[in-house]
Amino acid sequence: xxxxxxxxxxxxxxxxxxxxxxxxxxxxxxxxxxxxxxxxxxxxxxxxxxxxxxxxxxxxxxxxxxxxxxxxxxxxxxxxxxxxxxxxxxxxxxxxxxxxxxxxxxxxxxxxxxxxxxxxxxxxxxxxxxxxxxxxxxxxxxxxxxxxxxxxxxxxxxxxxxxxxxxxxxxxxxxxxxxxxx
Length: 182
Hints:
GO terms for molecular function: pyrimidine-specific mismatch base pair DNA N-glycosylase activity; uracil DNA N-glycosylase activity. Residues 19-177 form the Uracil-DNA glycosylase-like domain. InterPro entries: MUG/TDG, Uracil-DNA_glycosylase-like, Uracil-DNA_glycosylase-like_sf. The chain is α/β, with parallel strands linked by helices. It has 6 helices and 5 strands; from the N terminus they run H-E-H-H-E-H-E-H-E-E-H. The chain has one domain (7-181): 3-Layer(aba) Sandwich (Uracil-DNA Glycosylase, subunit E), CATH 3.40.470.10. Helix 4 packs across helix 5.
């Protein structure tokens, strides 16, 4: 398990990039907005305590137990991967510009074409709307595809997203899992 980053570690993590967890032909490629400073400091996706990605992933039925962020590479064995719209770490997602999200959408589309996941799951409806110009998108399956890959939008699992409790978030993950298994 990773050590808790110090305030200096967090400050130094601004702009840092963490590698994707990705491979060809995944069942689901999850796409976050960008790494927070805690993730950038530790090198692990969704690492900040209070982020609900890992518990929602497990409760939604994707993993047999709740993984820790430092176990992220084990997701590949379950056909799951993680990437981000914007690579650079920041304190808050609202620090990103519209252009960064639009450019990130183009990079994400290229990754989807290259790696061919069966589903793309975007974590954050606002980021999806901006990146792909889909102003009326809602959580759930989207009518648009990227190549042959269908897109599903999930709520942002950040602890700052008070609109979704962990139970509601897990239910959204479970709905995606059911679609993947169909």
